[in-house]
C-alpha cells in the first residue's frame, strides 16, 4: 500500500502516519533482478560458509586460542551479521516480491548497518596495530597483545561505534513521514528513508556525514600509519625470505582494508553525483559492499595464514 498525503494549507485533513515502507530495488531495471539474485546468493553462501568455517576452526583448534585469532573471530562475526541483516531481505524482494518492511525493522536495519560497518573498520584498525606490534616490537608482543587487550579492544570497538551510530536511526525515526512511503533502494539507508519525510533533514544528514567520516577517517589514518611503520621495519629485515613473507601477509591485509575504504568512498561520490550517475549504481554498490568484504575477509586473513590452514585440514580429517 502506498500512502500519499495531500497537506493542503486550507484543509484540516491529516493522513495517518506511515507504519511501513515499500522497498523498490533498481527502479530502472526491474526485469533483470532475478538474474542478479544468483550471484548474490552464491556470494552470500560463500561469505557465510567461509566465516563459519573460520570460526569453528578457531574454536576447536587449541593452538589458535591466541589474541590475533580472536580478532579474526570478531571480524567474522561482524561480517556475518552484516550479511544476514541486508542480503536475505534483498533476495526476498527478488524472489517473492516481499517489498514491504515495517517501521521498526527498517530503522533497526539502519542502525545495524551504520554501527557494524564502523565496527568492522575499527576492527581493521586494531588488527593493524596487532601486526605493527608483532613486526616492529616482537619482543614486547606477548606482554602488549594479550587476551585482556583483545577483551578491552572488543568492548571499545562495540561501544564506540554503537553509541556514535545510535543517533542516526533515532534522528531518522523521529521525523514525520506523511509523504509517499516508497524507498527507492533495496535497504533502509538513512538518506533513502529520511528524504521521504516532511521535516527538515539537514541535521540528520550532517550528523551522519560528520560521525561517519570521523569514525572511518580516524581508523583509516591510524591503519595507514601502522602499515607505514610496518613497511619501514620490514625493509630493514635482512633474514632471507622474512621480508618477503611479512610483505606478502601485510600487503594482502592492507589491500583488503583499502578495498573496504575505497568502496565506501565510491558510494559517497556516486551519491553526490546522483544526477550524472544512474540511481541503480549506488544501490548495487551498497549491496555488494555488504557481501564482497565478508566473502574475501576470511580468505585473505584466514586461508592465507599457515596455522589456520593446518587447523582447517585437521578439522576436515576429523570429519
UniProtKB/TrEMBL annotation:
InterPro entries: GPCR_Rhodpsn, GPCR_Rhodpsn_7TM, Olfact_rcpt, OR51/52/56-like. The chain crosses the membrane at residues 36-60, 72-96, 102-129, 210-231, 251-273. The keyword GTP-binding does not apply. The keyword Transmembrane applies. It comes from the Eukaryota. GO terms for molecular function: G protein-coupled receptor activity; olfactory receptor activity. Keywords: G-protein coupled receptor, Membrane, Olfaction, Receptor, Sensory transduction, Transducer, Transmembrane, Transmembrane helix. Signal peptide: none annotated. It is a multi-pass membrane protein. PROSITE patterns: G_PROTEIN_RECEP_F1_2. Putative odorant or sperm cell receptor. This is G-protein coupled receptors family 1 profile domain-containing protein. It comes from Bos mutus grunniens (Wild yak).
Amino acid at each position: 500500500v502506498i500512502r500519499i498525503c495531500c497537506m493542503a494549507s486550507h484543509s484540516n485533513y491529516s493522513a495517518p502516519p506511515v507504519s511501513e515502507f515499500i522497498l523498490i530495488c533498481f527502479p530502472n531495471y526491474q526485469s533483470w533482478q532475478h538474474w542478479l539474485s544468483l550471484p548474490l546468493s552464491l556470494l552470500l553462501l560463500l561469505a557465510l560458509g567461509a566465516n563459519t568455517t573460520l570460526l569453528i576452526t578457531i574454536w576447536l583448534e587449541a593452538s589458535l586460542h591466541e589474541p590475533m585469532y580472536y580478532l579474526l573471530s570478531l571480524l567474522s562475526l561482524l561480517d556475518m551479521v552484516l550479511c544476514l541483516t541486508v542480503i536475505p531481505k534483498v533476495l526476498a524482494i527478488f524472489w517473492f516480491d516481499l517489498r514491504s518492511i515495517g517501521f521498526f525493522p527498517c530503522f533497526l536495519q539502519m542502525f545495524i548497518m551504520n554501527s557494524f560497518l564502523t565496527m568492522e573498520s575499527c576492527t581493521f584498525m586494531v588488527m593493524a596495530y596487532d601486526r605493527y606490534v608483532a613486526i616492529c616490537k616482537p619482543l614486547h608482543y606477548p606482554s602488549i597483545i594479550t587476551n585482556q587487550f583483545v577483551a578491552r579492544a572488543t568492548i571499545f570497538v562495540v561501544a564506540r561505534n554503537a553509541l556514535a551510530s545510535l543517533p542516526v536511526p533515532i534522528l531518522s525515526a523521529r521525523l514525520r513521514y506523511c509523504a509517499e512511503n516508497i524507498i527507492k533502494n533495496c535497504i533502509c539507508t538513512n538518506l533513502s528513508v529520511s528524504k521521504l519525510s516532511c521535516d527538515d533533514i539537514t541535521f540528520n544528514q550532517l550528523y551522519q556525514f560528520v560521525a561517519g567520516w570521523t569514525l572511518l577517517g580516524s581508523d583509516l589514518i591510524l591503519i595507514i600509519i601502522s602499515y607505514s611503520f610496518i613497511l619501514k621495519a620490514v625493509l630493514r629485515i635482512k633474514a632471507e625470505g622474512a621480508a618477503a613473507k611479512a610483505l606478502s601477509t601485510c600487503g594482502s591485509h592492507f589491500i583488503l582494508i583499502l578495498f573496504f575504504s575505497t568502496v565506501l568512498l565510491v558510494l559517497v561520490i556516486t551519491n553526490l553525483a546522483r544526477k550524472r550517475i544512474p540511481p541503480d549504481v549506488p544501490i548495487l554498490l551498497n549491496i555488494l559492499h555488504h557481501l564482497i568484504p565478508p566473502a574475501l575477509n576470511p580468505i585473505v586473513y584466514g586461508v592465507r595464514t599457515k596455522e589456520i590452514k593446518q587447523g582447517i585440514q585437521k578439522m576436515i580429517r576429523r570429519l
